[in-house]
Design brief:
Elements lengths: L8 E11 L5 E12 L8 H7 L7 E7 L1 H4 L7 E5 L13 E5 L5 E9 L3 E5 L8 E13 L2 H6 L18
């Protein structure tokens, strides 16, 4: 009988997030991601709940309205700036910029557009306003060890350095 996902089970899975409207793959995890169910919440509560009761080899899809997680898009968080006012290291699409307001609060912004005259940075989560499908494949389900439960995931052994020799520099 296959083990099912429940509290204190070690689980490994792969997943991809697909935009429901465009069918574009927004992100993908190809190498299994491991965690202890009920101890570590690695994905949204809705996804974690959908995994409950599933077993190794199952493939599931979870539809999520990202407005429920991140709220609606806030156009006040989109800034278009003259390119000469932005340091060169921030002039590439995909660059994350940590900004601080007058109260000392920080927020991460992402460069979303660059042209010859302007740069657009966006403080909204990239999933805001989207409906997505999490496609998950469950690779492993087994009892977690006491150590894995304590740490919330797989505990790797430290490398054996006893037989290493120093290399002269």
């Amino acid at each position: 009988m296959k083990a099912i996902i429940e509290a204190n089970k070690y689980v490994e899975l792969t997943y991809k997030v697909v935009d429901q409207k465009t069918r574009q793959v927004l992100t993908q995890v190809e190498f299994p991601l491991g965690y202890v169910h009920g101890v570590t919440e690695i994905l949204s509560p809705q996804v974690m709940g959908a995994l409950e009761g599933k077993s190794e080899g199952d493939v599931i899809e979870v539809h999520i309205d990202c407005n429920d997680i991140y709220g609606p898009r806030d156009e006040a968080l989109v800034v278009i700036e003259a390119i000469e006012n932005v340091p060169k290291e921030y002039r590439e699409v995909g660059t994350a910029i940590l900004m601080e307001n007058d109260n000392g609060q920080t927020k991460s912004f992402l460069v979303t557009r660059v042209d010859a005259r302007t740069i657009t940075i966006d403080g909204n989560n990239p999933l805001c306003g989207r409906e997505v499908i999490f496609k998950l494949e469950i690779v492993t389900v087994r009892d977690a060890t006491d150590e894995e439960i304590q740490h919330g995931g797989k505990v790797e052994a430290a490398p054996d350095l006893n037989n290493c020799r120093a290399v002269p520099v």
